[in-house]
Amino acid sequence: FMGCESLKSVLIPPSVTDIKNSAFEGCRFLTEIKLPKALTVINEKVFKSCSSLRKINIPHAVNYIGEEAFSDCKMLNNVKIPDSVQRINSKAFMGCISLSEIYIPNSVEYIADNAFQGCRIKEYYTDAITITGGVSITGVDIVTCTFASIEKVSK
Prior knowledge:
Layout: E1 9-11, E2 18-19, E3 32-34, E4 41-42, E5 64-65, E6 78-80, E7 87-88, E8 101-104, E9 110-111, E10 123-126, E11 130-132, E12 136-138, E13 141-142, E14 152-154
Parallel strand pairs: 1-3, 2-4, 4-5, 6-8, 7-9, 8-10, 9-13, 10-14
Antiparallel strand pairs: 11-12
């Protein structure tokens, strides 16, 4: 479906556990996608540049979010990372300029470089990870992670 500009919504069958690289990349008018509960992997660039996608419900079975998986999803405004995720890879949410709320559980052990570059996160929710100095996260192994501005932190 890469680059399919007429695609507006997708319902993925319940048996799907893995979405391959760039499957929906560049589907600019995709506004809605229903991911199956059995999904465990969101690979590289799966939803890259789906600039009309506003919301994504990441299933609780997902344990891997690939590089640039949601990069440049300019309308995506909030994300809840499920407890099953241990790693958020490089540029996973880069350029998601409308992303204002994010929940990252304490299961996340690694946030790679530029995972949230260009995001305007206002509210950051977490179980055990803490923000210090407004720009860095302690308790996780981070190569580089930049938050443009954070106005509120909830624990």
